[in-house]
Fold:
Amino acid sequence: MNNVELVEKISAYLKGSKAKAKKFQDLVAVNFTLIGCDDDLYVEVKNGVLDVNHYHYDDYQANVSGAPENIEKIFAGELDMDKAIADGLVKVDGDVAKFKALAVLIPSKKAEAKTAAKKPAAKKTEAKPAAKKAEAKPAAKK
Structure:
């Protein structure tokens, strides 16, 4: 997976987080160095606007190095940031707090499960028995 494909996936995961990004007071600029790829990507929240792009961010506050699959799992909500750092799946250089600040933008699997549970189950439509045809009465004999 290259950085352009990963940017598309991360953008899709964070699509519903634009309202949360508006609450950010400070700049958050995190560059991601993808191990095994020649390119980087970044996630930035500036003036309440979320931006994910497939370029190297020069003035980043934190740089996260990791395999593209692990970076994707973090933004998919499948891998906790703290666990990824502790297990050595990603390495953070710079301000770790800025990297962790992105966590509020990541959809939680628990929240998705709750949303799915609240949705009413699709109603099953049962086949209605065919309406009984009026039985024809024999014509009265004259």
